Sequence to fold (232 residues):
Amino acid sequence: MKESDLYQAIKSYLEAQGYEVKGEVCACDVVGVRGDEAPVIVELKTGFTLPLLLQGVDRLAVSDRVYLAFAVGEVVAKNALWGKSKKEIKKLCRRLGLGLISVQINQNRDDFVEVHLDPIPYVPRKNKKRQGRLLREFELRVGDPNEGGVTRKTIITAYRQDALRCLKYLSHNGPAKLAELRAATSVQRASGILQNDHYGWFERVERGVYQLTPKGMMALEEFAEALVDLQV
Fold:
């Protein structure tokens, strides 16, 4: 398939809406004009790609009405970018103010043009709740225990740091009561951490008294570097 295979389908779609359409005008794949309205520009690719996105962004200097059009099969391949990341692609295009069109080319029937987004100015609304969680996590986290951009490595969150404080105290002092543990570590949520035991590090010996599990003992070695920076 070639990019030009999409042209007739897009041209017919725009003409049905009253546009006069011409191809390859000043490097734009498709240009539609209707009365005194700003021109519609459509960039074509055989699939959704970064070059298509970059072309669309460049065309925003000419018109606010820019669409990205790309070909799709009757069944979208799971490993195709559109198949894997449809929601994220739409979100990105919406933020950039770009329209989005998929074109299904059919041999035995009419091609199918689907408009997923129209190009409208986007003013993002900040999520105050998420921002609050971000700042709270930043404030509660001790030091900088994670290297940004690292994958396949356990992230040391503020919650995990609190659990590690409890782990460190119990490793040094043996079984302890919750009240004692809370006072010694200053971990106010110690009760919830030990009772919920998300990591499998703690077990109850008797009412209100906890000790380390074998998995907790192994965690001492796994998180040895992070434990060094935690005061208990």
Observations:
- The chain is about 40% helix and 20% strand.
- The mean pLDDT is 90.
- The beta strands are 20-25, 28-33, 40-45, 66-72, 99-104, 112-117, 176-177, 202-206, 209-212.
